[in-house]
Amino acid sequence: MQTTEQAASSAHSQATHSECVAQSRYDTLGLEQAYLAHGQSVRALELSGDIQRIKQLQLQLRSETAEKPGKQIKIASVVELKSSAKADANCELFFILPISGGALINHHDLAVRLISVNSPLGSGLLGKYHDDQVLIANPSSNIEYDVIDFY
């Protein structure tokens, strides 16, 4: 976060520096620096909002098993999925977050993929139960997963 804020500040300083004043109508260095400064500032605000959402997120570790009635997948759930298409497919772990996902976290021998609640898989998993199936529409084909467990 600090690096992003420094980059935004640096881009703003460069955009307003006297050397970036256009010398001709074809000189766009100042304009380019202004666009860069704006983009960096927007990204810094987005990251700050993401950090706040994570701090507010209360992870509720469940002490009961997923088979208990009424327990469904929600934001902050870690979900174990297996592809329905392949009998020999390995199970995969997904952590549903209220922010952008995409990262893969390795902890000991476990790999957990962070996914956004707004992603097709993240939104498809919300409200599902143990042993449910999730069908995710993909441009090339549909992918079906079995919910093995969740925490």
Q: Name the CATH superfamily classification of the largest domain.
A: Transcription elongation factor, GreA/GreB, C-terminal domain
Straight-line N-to-C gap? 29 Å
CATH architecture of the largest domain: Roll
Widest sheet: strand ordering: 3-4-2-1-6-5
Strand coverage percent: 15-25%
Q: What do the pLDDT scores average to?
A: 82
What is the N-to-C order of secondary-structure elements (H for helix, E for strand)?
HHEEEEHEE
Number of structural units classed as domains? 2
Summarize the biggest pleated sheet: 6 strands, mixed
Describe this structure in words.
- The structure is a single chain.
- With 151 residues, this protein is of the alpha+beta class.
- It folds into two domains: 2-56; 78-150, Transcription elongation factor, GreA/GreB, C-terminal domain (Chitinase A, domain 3, Roll).
- It contains three helices and six strands.
- Strands 3-4-2-1-6-5 form a six-stranded mixed beta sheet.
- Helix 1 (2-15) packs antiparallel against helix 2.
- It is elongated and about 65 Å long.
